[in-house]
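Hi there,

I know you've been waiting on this one. I reran it after we fixed the sequence typo, so this is the corrected version. Both the input and the resulting structure follow.
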Amino acid sequence: MLFSFVGSLFYSVSPTVLHVSAILSAPSPTYLLGTDRLGRDLLARLIEGGQVSLLIGILSAFLSTFIGLIVGATAGYFKGKTDKTFVLIVDLFLTFPTFFLLLALVSYVNASVWVLVLIISITGWMTTARLVRSESYSINAQPYIKILRIANVSKAKIILKYYVPLLAPIFFVSFTFGVGGAILSESALSFLGLGIVAPQMSWGSIMSDGKEVIQIAWWVSFFPGLLIFLITFSLINISNFLQQLTNQKEIRS
């Protein structure tokens, strides 16, 4: 994230300027990570593209996790017809493989940052919702929840004041894991030519540009792929760490 959002302060080369005399130049002191097939500086493009990839990843993960939290908590709290409707909708979404559902939705609209955020969010909330619903059932069984209901405390207050804090660990773990998944989804779409389009750029679109010259210019695809791997690997480790903290708190309580 520092590389993407702060890197341009230390490396001020334009990511769109064409260097005709340096097309597909290998990494060197002049071009630290080389250039692409139009002679554009790859390091500058990775800095610029990282902002788009991370923006899509963070926003779509937040929206999908938030939707999952609200829908799952509502289904777990109200049960009955609400819960049956929830199960029906989730099963309907899970009938189609997520990536193919993404492909189907993107093929009917012109992709942009906000469109991809919306589409990835719509197709990524189900896992969080199922986890939250399962946890909500155990919260429902707590004696103080039954007392609050007998005392005619408003349903909104019970959910916001007592459910949400207990469900927060699931939210943060799912959000952290979801960022990596969203970045991978955007990269896969861009690699197939259905994601970010010029003049915008992302790690996925940069990697896609290099697939046609990978035999003679390995660096064009290698470095964006490496960054996607590093950010995803790091987020998975952060997610595992948060999950361990949550488990330790549950054991202590």
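Quick highlight: The chain has one domain: 39-248.

Best,
R. S.
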